[in-house]
Structures are given as structure tokens and as C-alpha cells.
Design goal:
The complex is a heterodimer of chains A (90) and B (307).
Chain A lengths: L12 H16 L3 H5 L19 H15 L1 H18 L1
Helix pairs in contact in A: 1-4
Chain B lengths: L44 H22 L1 H28 L2 H7 L4 H12 L11 E2 L2 E2 L12 H20 L5 H28 L8 H9 L1 H43 L11 H28 L5
Antiparallel strand pairs in B: 1-2
The chains are: A mainly alpha (90), B mainly alpha (307).
Organism (chain A): Oncorhynchus mykiss (Rainbow trout)
Main location (chain A): membrane
Subcellular location (chain A): Membrane
Chain lengths: 90, 307
């Protein structure tokens, strides 16, 4: 087919959505006690930095924590929909 | 036939653009701007498609109005359509602030010409500051440095058309390839905007770059892509590489100068101690990386068209 003759990766919006869902799932499964605290990325270790320049590590930890908090429930719904669709349509 | 504004086809005018009877979604720029037929960004098929629809329906209007039931039904239908339009507007304005979006489309043809010239040859431009007017940024109509979304969206559509033409010249055209090309280009811009947002958040850069600004600055690469593809089509493989290097350099210069104002200067009022230099170095890396990404993506998205 003509699609295989193109040298670049053929992105569609669907593959972007898949990639985003997978990445958000990956961030959401990082467990607070068992993993993040062990490597020094826990919630209690990010409170130290006051002042207006929090630093990269603190920002990343905040990002991970906020993604886990906000996306927990929507991810359940989105994952269920994806599972059903993939089972039905392959 | 009175067409309710919710599903209005563009009437056959010289400028197949904003429907002036719809003040909520479009700024009223159509009276100020002359028809821009020489830009080549609009697909003229829009006009042709709208014209024949109006003809056969005119004959039936007079007969309909004689019947009171039909006219009552028509008024009910139009009020329903107005309600639907209000609901749609409310839902849209919940996710996308329409006023902010209107700012990016408030352009005129003088601005477009100057901006296109700036994108192709930015080396002589002196003043890159975005001018303000009592705390709000000036609209693109008054300030050539302001980002806009008109040029990126039109350039995107032109790029898709050019890609179709280039593939057709090489006899590799099929309608699915066109859609694939369009979504690939769009996905790369979305990826770049997301990565920029992530970097700006992680480095805690408190600039006034909104998500629409980032879409605008990322979308300016479509102009470079059009220039490159045109060079490749007109002058063959050598012309392609010359146009590629020219537009890459121009675009890199443009991006670095524009983003330098926004990203690097936002920390100058609280720089203190040794931490400032590490931060400012990272911000410089972000700006330069964002600029260096442009030629890569231009090459990636246009090389298959000019082989």
C-alpha cells in the first residue's frame, strides 16, 4: 500500500490518544508507599522547598502526585471503555 | 430559504470566511479586511459548493409562507435552533475561552504580509517585544510581534493541499494518504506543544505563554514547510535542500528571538544567588532545543513529498 512507502511514522490522532492513555496509566500506577517513598520521591519529602523557585525534582514530584490524584477515577472509566472496545474490535 | 445560523453554509462571497450574522463566535473583521484572494490560503471550492444550493430552494419559499402551519413550524424550528446554538456556545466557552481565541484571529492583511515576510526573513527585524496596552497584549492587528493562530491554521491547510499535489505529481496519491498526512502533521504539533508545556511547568517558568501561544509558535513551522515543499517542487532535489536550509535558519532565528523575550526575561526580576544561573541555563536550553526541533520536523514531514 502507499502507506508503507512513506518513510516517516504514520501518526494518527488515535495513536496519539493511545500513547497518552498509556503514559497516564504508567504515572498512575506508581504507588506512594511502596515505591515513591523508597526512592525519595514521596509526598513528605517535597514540602521542604519554600520560596518561589521550587526546583525540578519538587515540581516533578508534585506533577506525579497531582496526576495520580486527579486522574484516578477518569482512568478507571477510560480503561474500561478501552478494554471493551479492544475486546470487541481487536 | 432562511437558514438558521447554526448550520449556515458560507454564502457565495468573495471571502468565504466569517459569517457576519454570528457575532458570538467570530470577531467582526470582515468589514475591515479586503478580500484576500491573492493569499491562496482559502480553498475556492467553498464558494462553488455553496452557490448551487441556494438556487432551487428559492422557488419553494413563497409557497411555504402561504401555509400558516408551515410558517409556524418554521418559527418553532428556528427557535429550537437558536436554543441549540446557545447551548453549544455555552459548552464551548466552558472548555475553550472564546475571547482568548478571538484575540488570535484578529488579524488583517497588512499584519499577515508583514508576518510572512518576518517568517521568511527575520534577520533585519529590530524590535521583538510584544507591545502592551494597559496590561493586555495588543491584538495582532496592531502589533507585528504578537502571535496569531490565523497563519498557522491557514498554512496547515495549504500544506495538506500542497502535499496532495506533490503526491499526485509522483502518482502516489490516494485520499487516505491526504488524511494521514494531515493527522501526522497535527499530531507532531500537539506533541511539541505538550512537551513544551511539560518543560515550562517543570522548570517553573512563570511566563505568560498560554497554550494558544504555544500552538501559534509551533504552527509557524507550517509556513517553513510550505516554502520547502514549493522549493522542492519547482526546482527539484537541489531546490528542496536550499529551501530547507533557508527556512530552517529563518525559523530557528525567529523562534529563538520570539521565545527569548517570553521565557528568558521572565526571571530577571528575581535573580539572586548561584541558583539563578543554572535555571537560566536550562531555560536557554529549552529555547534552543525548541528551535532546533523545527528543522528536524520540517525535514521529517516533507522529505517523502519531494523524492
Amino acid at each position: 500500500l502507499y502507506l508503507s512507502s512513506k518513510s516517516n511514522m504514520a501518526f494518527t490522532l488515535y495513536s496519539l490518544i493511545q500513547a497518552v492513555i498509556l503514559c497516564v496509566n504508567a504515572v498512575a500506577v506508581l504507588h506512594e508507599e511502596r515505591f515513591l517513598s523508597k526512592i525519595g520521591w514521596g509526598v513528605d519529602q517535597s514540602i521542604g522547598g519554600f520560596g518561589d523557585e521550587p526546583g525540578i525534582k519538587v515540581q516533578l514530584m508534585n506533577l506525579v502526585r497531582s496526576v495520580r490524584t486527579v486522574m484516578r477515577v477518569p482512568l478507571i472509566a477510560v480503561n474500561s471503555v478501552c478494554i471493551v472496545l479492544l475486546l470487541l474490535f481487536g | 430559504m432562511i437558514v438558521p445560523p447554526v448550520h449556515s453554509h458560507p454564502k457565495p462571497r468573495a471571502r468565504a470566511g466569517p459569517h457576519t450574522g454570528d457575532p458570538l463566535l467570530f470577531a467582526d473583521t470582515s468589514s475591515a479586511a479586503p478580500p484576500m484572494n491573492n493569499q491562496g490560503y482559502y480553498t475556492p471550492g467553498y464558494n462553488i459548493g455553496g452557490a448551487p444550493v441556494g438556487g432551487p430552494e428559492d422557488a419553494g419559499v413563497n409557497n411555504l409562507f402561504a401555509d400558516p402551519m408551515a410558517s409556524a413550524a418554521m418559527m418553532y424550528g428556528s427557535s429550537l435552533a437558536n436554543q441549540g446554538k446557545d447551548i453549544v456556545n455555552k459548552e464551548i466557552s466552558r472548555y475553550v475561552s472564546v475571547n482568548k481565541l478571538k484575540y488570535f484571529f484578529a488579524v488583517d492583511s497588512k499584519y499577515v504580509m508583514k508576518k510572512l515576510l518576518l517568517l521568511v526573513f527575520p534577520y533585519t527585524h529590530q524590535d521583538w517585544e510584544v507591545r502592551y496596552h494597559r496590561d493586555t497584549p495588543l491584538t495582532p492587528r496592531h502589533d507585528v510581534n504578537a502571535p496569531d493562530l490565523y497563519i498557522p491554521s491557514m498554512a496547515f491547510i495549504t500544506y495538506i493541499l500542497l502535499a496532495g499535489m506533490a503526491l499526485g505529481i509522483q502518482k502516489r496519491f490516494s485520499p487516505e494518504v491526504l488524511g494521514l498526512c494531515a493527522s501526522t502533521a497535527l499530531v507532531w504539533v500537539v506533541i511539541e506543544v505538550l512537551v513544551m508545556l511539560l518543560c515550562l511547568y517543570i522548570l517553573s517558568v512563570h511566563s505568560d505563554l498560554s497554550i494558544f501561544d504555544l500552538f501559534a509558535y509551533s504552527g509557524y513551522k507550517y509556513v517553513g514547510m510550505i516554502f520547502t515543499v514549493l522549493g522542492g517542487l519547482l526546482f527539484g532535489s537541489d531546490g528542496y535542500f536550499v529551501a530547507l536550509t533557508w527556512s530552517s535558519c529563518a525559523l530557528m532565528f525567529f523562534i529563538v528571538r520570539s521565545l527569548k523575550m517570553k521565557i528568558l526575561s521572565s526571571f530577571s526580576h528575581n535573580s539572586m544567588g548561584a541558583g539563578a544561573t543554572a535555571k537560566s541555563r536550562l531555560r536557554l536550553y529549552i529555547t534552543v532545543a525548541s528551535a532546533a526541533f523545527q528543522p528536524i520536523i520540517i525535514y521529517w514531514l516533507t522529505s517523502h513529498l519531494v523524492r
